[in-house]
Amino acid sequence: MLLIDPARGIIVDGNRAACEFYGYPEEILRGMQLSRINTQGDADIHHEMQNALAERRNYFVFYHRLARGEVRTVEVHSSSIIVDGRTLLFSIVFDITQRKLAEHSLRTASLVFENSSEAMSVLDPHGYMITVNPAFTAVTGYPPEEAVGAHKSLLQSDREDPEVYRTLWQTIEATGSWQGEIWTRRKNGERFLRWLSVSTIYDENGVVKSRVAQFSDVTRKRETDELIWRQANFDALTGLPNRAMFHDRLEQAIMKAARQGEQLALLFLDLDYFKEVNDTLGHAMGDRLLQLAAQRLHHCVRASDTVARLGGDEFTVILNDVAEAHSVERVVQTILRTMAEPFLLGVEKVYVSASIGITLFPADGNDADLLIKHADQAMYAAKEQGRNRFSYFTPSMQNAAQARKRLVNDLRTALDEHQFEVAYQPIVDLRTGEIRKAEALVRWRHPQRGLISPAEFIPIAEQTGMVMDLGDWVFRQAAHQAAKWRAAHHPAFQISVNVSPVQFRDDGINQEAWLYYLERLGLTGHAVAVEITEGLLMDATPAVSQQLYSFRDSGVQVALDDFGTGYSSMAYLKKFDIDYLKIDRAFVQNLTPGSDDLALCEAMIVMAHKLGILVVAEGVETAEQRDLLAASGCDFAQGYFFSRPVPAEEFDRLFVKG
Ligand code: C2E
Ligand code: CA
Ligand code: CA
């Protein structure tokens, strides 16, 4: 409260509150020039005081400077009083700085809100829109009357994984804010990418009062970004990755292969006779040829592989995770075949071919530059050898590839030329020690190379489809032998044959023929069993299941080979009505009392027995292994300890011994 003398423009008196507010002791405040605290000029002060005296207005807003220099906004209510014949102004001063500030920021906020080019909406704590600004309507197409009261999910787009929205709101719940790009839906259904920033307003108790979502349409920007990125990384003519992108991908592929201990192949491909096409038919046709060639190449590889164009008629292919060299060769053969097919350019039918160089990581080089260099050299070697062919970088690989090619050829005639034999390995009943079963294992006696292991030629027979005829032949041999041994040794003698998953493909095994063969020998289905692998069950088609069930119906038992090395699913055993489970040699090899492998064998045996399945242990080589297995309740065993796989005549002598 101040008492002011308007005639002299001085403060006559102030109360304690005034002294405290202005920060002056009473004796200084008293008699102080009004202009010391009022920031306006003397003329203005005088004018306002005249207003007060005339009672034209009774309150004023001034800016008063305090003793420490700070300026506050004050509201002054004045009325004139007469003291000792003098007209003074009795003024009550209210500090309204805070209120003014708040009003101001509200006003600017709402100005910003209304005029911002950024779309904004204010949400209540439950995600319903309380208010939206004009930009919101411009961007989303929703007028305020439709948006206000609607849930935030109004803008949710099916182009975005719902999981993204969920984590977004989880983040907001937890931290109060989120920023990022997110796909959104306009009222007309159009989808757009918005840059969204959400912040939260809390009340004084920390409870969420509202949230402000602010966003802009960045679809265009993303599109230009993508376009720039595409131009920098992709070949405009073919749409394939360009040299820069190819380098990136190769570096990444090498890193991944190194980390995971995998092999990768890099192919260098050059079109033969491209220059001739370009020269005779013109550049436009040459370009078209490159586009078509790129498409064909692309179709020859898996989605995870990379096809790139380095420039001109040079292409590269990165094949990731190649298990074996011959799987690379398969792809390369496909590429050569595809490229050799005629290209239709306008009315012209054009023939070109490709020359391909192959390098393998890590064998032929362990960095990108070296691999590229070697692949390039290998490609030139292929060109020199007469085009339309491939060449490996390393001579040793070249040799291996040639050896394999010869083997494929030799295998074609092996069956007709009676080069196959069947060896039998006894399977012993662990309770009695008697030989009641045998496994038939095929052998190839190659005229030049001698005995070749099935591990080497079965995969080739599988790839070439020859395993069908070979499998039929082994089956007939085994059935024939079972009939003999049933007559000579034991009426329940059983021989198991290994059946490749490939035999189940397409039309599958001709079971009628197999059963007819057994019948002619006077045998029931029980005389033979088939050994299958878990892989077959894992991707069993209905046709495969059907074949397995019809084996069961005809009394042919089914054994699951190499158990424990793959998926080892008990569920499959039950589903497919498996009769025997063969524990893989890997577990038997290191059996010692108290070992983990023993615990694993015991577990497999117990579980199998629960399902009514008998267990055969493979690869038993010592008496200790046999004893541990017998003590664990294992039903049968086979392995070198009892006998190696032997020809039938030799097997006869085992019966005598046993
Ligand atoms: P498999 O079915 O697991 O056959 C067992 C393999 O272990 C045989 O190798 C056998 O000689 C060997 N073996 C047996 N006892 C012992 C032992 O105590 N110690 C050791 N270290 N090895 C033992 P083999 O004859 O070389 O056959 C290899 C694979 O070739 C077989 O593995 C089987 O998957 C496949 N195979 C053999 N014959 C045929 C056939 O007629 N058709 C098909 N599709 N595959 C066959
Ligand atoms: Ca087997
Ligand atoms: Ca096995």
Helix/strand layout:
Layout: E1 2-5, E2 10-14, H1 16-22, H2 26-29, H3 34-37, H4 42-53, E3 59-65, E4 71-83, E5 86-95, H5 97-115, E6 119-123, E7 129-132, H6 134-140, H7 144-147, H8 162-175, E8 178-185, E9 191-202, E10 208-217, H9 219-233, H10 243-260, E11 264-272, H11 274-281, H12 283-300, E12 306-311, E13 314-319, H13 325-340, E14 343-345, E15 348-350, E16 353-361, H14 368-384, E17 389-392, H15 395-414, E18 420-429, E19 435-446, E20 450-452, H16 454-464, H17 467-488, E21 494-498, H18 511-520, E22 528-532, H19 534-538, H20 542-553, E23 557-563, H21 570-575, E24 580-583, H22 585-589, H23 596-610, E25 614-617, H24 623-631, E26 636-637, H25 648-657
Parallel strand pairs: 16-17, 19-21, 21-22, 22-23, 23-24, 24-25, 25-26
Antiparallel strand pairs: 1-2, 1-5, 3-4, 4-5, 6-7, 6-10, 8-9, 9-10, 11-13, 11-16, 12-13, 14-15, 18-19, 18-26, 19-20
Helix pairs in contact: 11-12, 12-13
What does this structure look like?
This protein is α+β, with helices and mostly antiparallel strands. The protein folds into four domains: 2-101, PAS domain (Beta-Lactamase, 2-Layer Sandwich); 116-222, 2-Layer Sandwich (Beta-Lactamase); 234-393, Reverse transcriptase/Diguanylate cyclase domain (Alpha-Beta Plaits, 2-Layer Sandwich), CATH 3.30.70; 415-657, EAL domain (TIM Barrel). The protein has 25 helices and 26 strands. The longest helix is centred in the C-terminal third of the chain and has 22 residues, at 467-488. The model has no long low-confidence stretch (mean pLDDT 90).
